[in-house]
Amino acid sequence: MMERLLVLVRHGQSEWNLKNLFTGWKDPDLTAQGVEEAKTAGAQLRDMKLEFDVAYTSVLQRAQKTLTIILEELGQQGLETIKDQALNERDYGDITGMNKDEAREQFGEEQVHIWRRSFDVPPPGGESLKMTAERVLPYYRREILPQVLSSKRTIVAAHGNSLRALIMELEKLSPEEILKRELGTGTPVIYRLNEDGEVVSVEDLAG
Length: 207
Fold this sequence. Notes:
GO terms for molecular function: phosphoglycerate mutase activity. Homodimer. By secondary structure, the chain is an alpha/beta fold. It has helices spanning 15-18, 32-47, 61-74, 100-107, 109-117, 129-149, 160-170, 175-179, and strands at residues 4-10, 54-57, 81-83, 154-158, 188-193, 199-204. The protein has a single domain (13-204), classed as 3-Layer(aba) Sandwich (Rossmann fold), CATH 3.40.50. 43% of the residues lie in helices and 15% in strands. Strands 3-2-4-1-5-6 form a six-stranded mixed beta sheet, sandwiched between helices. The relative contact order is 0.22.
C-alpha cells in the first residue's frame, strides 16, 4: 500500500530572523546558519530514506532556497516544484521591517504581543493568523491535499505562520493551541495521512 506522506519544513534562519525583524512578505536571504539548517534537514530526511514526488514552496527566496538545499541533499534537484504566494508568510503590514524590541517600545509590550500572538487581530495594514489561514487552507485543500491523497509524497517548504495554518488543520488544533505551537527554523515535521486526509502519525524532527 502506498503511503500518504506530507512533510512540512519551515525555512532556515533568514537575515531578518537574525536581526529580530518582522519579515512578512519581505524577501531576505538565508544566513550561513540557515543554509546549514536546511542541509541538516535534508540529511535527516535522507537518513530516513524519504524521497518526494512533488514539492511546494512560497514565492519568497528563504523558503525556496531551503527547499533547493534539501532536495540537493536528497539528490532530487530536478523534482517538480510549485511556487505560490498562498504559502507566503503572514503579512505584518505597517510593522514589517521593524525590530521587535523597537516595536514594543513604540507601541507597547501588550499591543505587540496581541499582534504577534492573537489569532484574529492583525497589525495595521497586515494579516492576522486567521487571515493567513483563510489564504493558505483553500490552497492546501485544492492543490496539495489531492496530491498527498493520490500517494504522491509531498514536501512543503514555507514559513512559521503559513505552516501554523496547515498544522492547525492537520492536527485539529484550536486557535489557542496553535498560537502556542513553536516551529524551529529548518526542522521537518512528517505527517502520514489516511485516505480521508486525517493524520495517522506525526513526527517532529526537532525532537
